[in-house]
Amino acid sequence: MMLSAKFQIRMCEKAYLILTINPLMQIDNSPETIKYGAWALALLSENNETHKKIVNSGALPTLSNLITSQIHYEINKYCIITIANLATSGENYEKLMELECRDFIILKFLDSCDNNVQYYILKYVLGLCQSSETQSQESKTQNIRKYLIMTSYLEPILRCAVSPDIKVANITLDIIKYKEL
After folding, report:
1. Domain for residue 95, yes or no?
2. Cβ atoms of 22 and 53 closer than 8 Å
3. Residue 26 DSSP SS3
4. What's the 3-state SS for 70-88?
5. Are residues 60 and 124 in the same domain?
6. Sequence-separated (6 or more) residues with CB below 8 Å from residue 101
7. Residues 118 and 62 in one domain
């Protein structure tokens, strides 16, 4: 469900994110409350103009904490969608590389989720590869490639290449062929 761009931008005012959405996603709330907060943030993250505001609101550590806590599958799904959408912007590269849930998302969750969530996890990985290209130093591109190989990310990613879902298979191939990874 795509919200209008003006509505998304207005909803992403820093005060609204900090005072309304982030408190909904605190781990001491009920899973239902957290799920709707995460869902709202996933919808808001569809617009590139909202990314900076979401990152500056301090939502990334909360998203990371929710994913590693494994409270509910739907919560993980919405958190991953938000992170994947944020990965499409090169400005967020450094913050996304610092996420504590990165290993968990790729190494543990990639093999045990549905095709839609797999697609967003792979979108996140591809976003990291592409975002590293926008950085001023070419060494950052080399670092992300080495990182993918050194951390055993490549094996679960390669398993997605034979997915029956065409979107998952295609984005996996995009990662594999990205600058001859």
Report:
1. no
2. no
3. coil
4. CCCHHHHHHHHHHHHHHCC
5. no
6. 63, 64, 65, 67, 68
7. no
The helix/strand/coil state of 177 is helix
What is the number of other CB atoms lying within 10 angstroms of the CB of residue 155?
12
Tens of pLDDT, residues 89-130: 777 777 887 787 777 888 778 887 888 888 988 888 888 777
Q: Which of 86, 119, 152 corresponds to the end of one domain?
A: 86
pLDDT digits (tens, 9 = 90+) for 46-96: 888 888 888 888 888 888 889 888 889 899 999 999 989 988 877 777 788
Q: How far is CA 16 from CA 13, 85, 93, 154, 181, in A?
A: 5, 19, 24, 38, 40
Q: Check whether residue 127 and residue 176 sit in a common domain.
A: yes
Residue 91 lies in a domain: no
Give the single-character DSSP code of 49. G
Residues whose CB falls within 8 Å of the CB of residue 11, separated by 6 or more in sequence, listed in order: 3, 40, 44, 50
Task: Give me the domain span that covers residue 41.
Answer: 1-86
- How many helices and strands in the chain, by DSSP H and E? 13, 0
